[in-house]
Amino acid sequence: MSLTQYIVTFYILSWAVRIRGWVRRWRQPQLRGQEWFFNVHVQPGFYTGAGRKILHAYWMRIFIPSAIDIPVATAIFISGHLLLLRWLILALAVLIHLNHVFSVDLAERQARSFAVPEAEQPVRSMVLSLKTRRLRDYSNRKLEVALAVSYGVALAWLVWYYFAAPDHQNLRLVFAVPIFLLYVQTGMVLVKQMIVAWRMPVPQAQVDEHIAAHEESRKLYLKVCDFGRISCSVAILVWPVLLGASPAHRELFVTLWLISGLVAGVVATVWQEISRKKVLAVALRARPVKLPDLLGQSDAVLGPVCYQPSTPMLVLKGARGYSLNLGNTFAQLSAVYLAGLVVLMVLLRTAP
Amino acid sequence: MILTIDTHDPRAIYQQVADGIKELIARGVLKEGVGLPPVRQLAADLGVNLNTIATAYRELQKEGLITVKHGSGAVIASSTSAERSQVELLRPLRAALTELVLAGLPSNEILDVVARELRTVTKGSK
Fold it and tell me: With an 8 Å Cβ cutoff, is B36 touching chain A?
């Protein structure tokens, strides 16, 4: 199996995953029943009146990423530059999620005009947990040790392999892929930090249900990150095997590696769907409530980005939707990380 | 280990946070040496400015109830380090009793109220 065949197969499989995503997002507004539109408690008759239009507009917006994908993918297939599909898959993964967040937010804001008035009143009391959330409390020590050992072993072997015949080995060929994967891995740790730090406002009513819903979602996202980190470390471990193999065996190894990658992707997707259902079951037990806005931001007109260093939230919600707070440490770290990623890619491309 | 913040409470948010932590210390829920979450985490969870929580922590530190060490964060202090004069401790009690007397409550009812509140505050403490 060549890399091109692999990417085309991966692209086709991504469509299968997307169809499941459509179904899930299609049902999402009415998961709590006919009295609810996402987390907005709507008045009776909402779905036969104005709500029908809001719901249909939301349903249409779900398909925006695919409407972009189809012509772009067609152009790629016609041009024959099939390797470009990997960038399309990556861009779509980001676009689908951003589009979903935007669509849900817009639909909820439109539906609030038809909400039950009492349900729109913020609750009086909020509960604050005094338990410190640290990344290490959400990490599996054995897994972390295994990952560290795998990097150590693979990098030690690569250094030995390179210095064993410095005149013959290509520096970029030996180290570019593992260094890139290691950097991606570091990015995933940063994402994990953000997930752990993600705010957890809880109303006084149904405290246990709300805390359980937050914690289950947090744990699922962290597991998804860990799956990505495991994939990176396996790829780093396999790299020396590929380099050291004879040309005849190398092709076989690459084929086996790509097929196992596809199988792992399918298994991970199925696992994620099952886990997501469990998280949803927990989340549905907690009745959504409007929390008080202690910062008074809900009426503020914020742009897509803002700078508020004294506010520790990464994302602020204003009158027009969400705003990325560039004053937040994680936003700054993410910017540094992305800049580093660009520099690394340039360096790896230009290295001897 | 949870605090409740009431938006209709006339006390400022920082005061509610400080009072809530004090109550948890009095009830023995927060014991000596237990670490409190970083200011950033509490402020983000509650959706308030960093200064709000920092002010609450400063007040607790001033009263000797917590110690703040650079790098390790805020920790519940030992009970001996929170020594304060009796006059200072009795001042808020006297003010509260004055309020109850002015509200027209008879002495025996005030004693009942004080006993009940004391039981609530020390519930769970040894």
Answer: yes
